[in-house]
């Protein structure tokens, strides 16, 4: 597929997601990075968003709960270019009933080439980068060219 370029703004739209066993780990990480996160637009799946808002006071747009469709809502936002990066503390050692949704979310994030941190170390690398506060050009699939070739 051909690609095009999308410019991520300096103030990123960041998705925050965590499986049940990792929610407190994400809360701790968000508290540690609150000064950086407060200058960005934050989104989260339902339960995670409510916990993060309550614990940190940050403004977070909460979608519905992941197992109830929140993972798919987030995937749609990614495919629409409305999410610039995702911090998803998932639990690789614990199967979840909505595992196909989780895999689809990670897949769509990869398709649309957004940075994804699935653990504290990767999140630290992303948020310590100077790019977190800058406009950044990324390559994304050229969907219009794809459609034009099909017509």
Hey, roughly how much beta strand do the residues contain? 15-25%
C-alpha-based Rg, rounded:
15 Å
N/C terminus separation: 15 Å
Structural class determined from secondary elements: alpha/beta
Helical content stands at 40-55%
* Count of DSSP strands: 7
- Domain count, please report it: 1
CATH class: Alpha Beta
The strand line-up of the biggest sheet is 4-3-2-5-6
Protein topology:
Elements: E1 3-8, E2 13-18, H1 23-32, H2 34-37, E3 41-44, H3 46-56, E4 60-62, H4 70-79, E5 85-89, H5 99-111, E6 116-117, H6 120-128, E7 136-141, H7 143-150
Parallel strand pairs: 2-3, 2-5, 3-4, 5-6
Antiparallel strand pairs: 1-7
Helix pairs in contact: 1-3, 4-5
Q: Brief description of this entry?
A:
The protein is of the alpha/beta class and 151 residues long. It contains seven helices and seven strands, in the order E-E-H-H-E-H-E-H-E-H-E-H-E-H. Helix 1 (23-32) crosses helix 3 (46-56) and helix 4 runs parallel beside helix 5 (99-111).
Question: What report would you give on this structure?
Answer:
With 151 residues, the chain is α/β, with parallel strands linked by helices. The protein has one domain (12-136): Methylglyoxal synthase-like domain (Rossmann fold). The protein is 43% helix and 21% strand. It contains 7 helices and 7 strands; from the N terminus they run E-E-H-H-E-H-E-H-E-H-E-H-E-H. The chain has helices spanning 23-32, 34-37, 46-56, 70-79, 99-111, 120-128, 143-150; strands at 3-8, 13-18, 41-44, 60-62, 85-89, 116-117, 136-141. A 5-stranded parallel β-sheet has the order 4-3-2-5-6. Strands 1-7 form a two-stranded antiparallel sheet. Helix 1 packs across helix 3 and helix 4 packs parallel to helix 5. The chain is globular. The mean pLDDT is 94. Substrate binds at residues 19, 23, 45-48, 65-66, 98. Belongs to the methylglyoxal synthase family.
